[in-house]
Amino acid sequence: MNISKNSSTIDFEILRILRQVTGWTDLVLVMIGLVGNFFILANTIRRKVRIFTKFFLISEAMSDSLVLVFPGIRYFVLIVLNDDIQNDSNFICIFHSFVTYLVTDFSAWILIILSLERYLLVKFPFNKRLKDLSLFHAISFSCVMFALGFLKNFIFFTAVIDPDTEVCFLGNMKLQLLITVLDMIFNLIIPSTLVLFCTIGSIIGIKRHILKISSNLKPISDTNYGSQILRMILAISVYHLITSLPLFCVLIIIKVTDVFYFYGDQLLYTFDLACALYISNNSLKFYLYCFSSKSFRKMFILLIHDVKIKFGSLIK
């Protein structure tokens, strides 16, 4: 009786089942994330908040939804159905790769804008230009971010389907490693660091200058409300760091070392888990908002109450 062979077969079967569970978990995360982002949109539209802040809160929810639709559904199909959407054609290979990285950039960079806006408002409470930031300014910032994202991800227009392997491929392994490292720097390390410093600085500033701010800074005149917005931004930034780091580490290990050839199945499952964690970052923000902000919870409860009233009146 070959014990090692049977053990290997059992291990492979366990990993296969675990991968299937992870794949279906991805789909669940996509569904609850889309529902949560819809509630963020509905809740944010109803809130009395600066138009500049409201624009980027809405943009964040939309970017998160696109991240769930593109890489989220791709991971589900790849794991459960063993079919990579990116390999269907050259156009899908280029389009899917470019859009995935672009919306991921937006999702991370918007947090910088929101936290920096709060910090500057606290630091310079009497600055008229900061108080008068409008929809035009928000759209201008978005256009700049789009231009930077386009330049950063322009390389994906060179992606092609390899004729031998029929796999969506971009350059060589060194180029892919460079892209992964750049993404880790510009989508994880820099945003998380800036958001952390800006948010903590804003909270300290509110506590130090509460009397001066309360009479001159309308958007955060209610210190409790202002602090809750900052806690929301801080919570999703910390969660973003925790859930994104494993995926970047796994990708770097795969592209730098030969460990995949020795522990391919185990590393593949680790990659699946890292992808699920990464998707949860864009899926659970609504629930993090509710957990970290009392005012957001109140507005959500009011929203549900109004929906019930309107739905009841329609039935009658």
Automatic annotation (TrEMBL):
Record GO cellular component, one term: plasma membrane
UniProt KW Membrane keyword: yes
One matching Pfam family: 7tm_1
SUPFAM superfamilies from the UniProt entry: Family A G protein-coupled receptor-like
GO molecular function list: G protein-coupled receptor activity
Protein name: GCR118
Membrane topology reported for the UniProt record: Multi-pass membrane protein
PROSITE patterns to which the protein is assigned, alphabetical: G_PROTEIN_RECEP_F1_1, G_PROTEIN_RECEP_F1_2
Originating organism: Schmidtea mediterranea (Freshwater planarian flatworm)
Record keywords, A-Z: G-protein coupled receptor, Membrane, Receptor, Transducer, Transmembrane, Transmembrane helix
Ranges for domain G-protein coupled receptors family 1 profile: 36-289
